[in-house]
Design goal:
140 residues, alpha+beta, DNA Binding (I), subunit A, two-stranded antiparallel ribbon, two-stranded antiparallel sheet, 8 strands, 21% strand, binds zinc ion
Length: 140
């Protein structure tokens, strides 16, 4: 296996590849030892347009506490990673800007959908020992 690469060129880390694949039209391509293409997987939008529209209507921008980035700056984050069997549905997705999408993938911040259907974020213990959920001010 070669390291993941992007169409913009250059290798990227596996962690970055997983983050990009979290909200992307993913076309898996398997390369053989000499670089020949062995298999071109089916392209698919992990979040169909209808779900993305509903997500924009619900979150109205990055849902991270304190963030004001509008929907156009945001990616859809799978709360349960698609690679771990997370469903592609509104109740398992949240809008996050590029920065906060990084935060969700690379730090101990967690996100979940509360019983009222809105996203809430659980800070790492070093920020709040009690790990009380926080919300974006749009939802308060
Ligand atoms: Zn993500
Ligand atoms: Zn944000």
């Amino acid at each position: 296996m070669f390291p993941p690469t992007t169409t913009f060129g250059g290798p990227i880390s596996p962690a970055a590849a997983r983050r990009i694949a979290c909200d992307a039209k993913v076309t898996p391509i398997v390369l053989g030892g000499k670089g020949e293409i062995l298999d071109v997987g089916r392209s698919r939008y992990t979040f169909p347009a209808a779900i993305r529209k509903a997500l924009v209507a619900r979150d109205r921008g990055c849902a991270f506490p304190g963030c004001d980035r509008p929907p156009g700056w945001c990616e859809a984050h799978h709360i349960v990673p698609f690679s771990q069997g997370g469903d592609t549905k509104l109740s398992s997705a949240v809008l996050a800007c590029d920065h906060h999408h990084h935060v969700l993938h690379h730090t101990d911040w967690q996100v979940r959908i509360a019983s009222d259907g809105l996203p809430e974020f659980i800070p790492p213990a070093w920020i709040d020992f009690a790990r009380r959920p926080r919300r974006n001010h749009r939802f308060l």
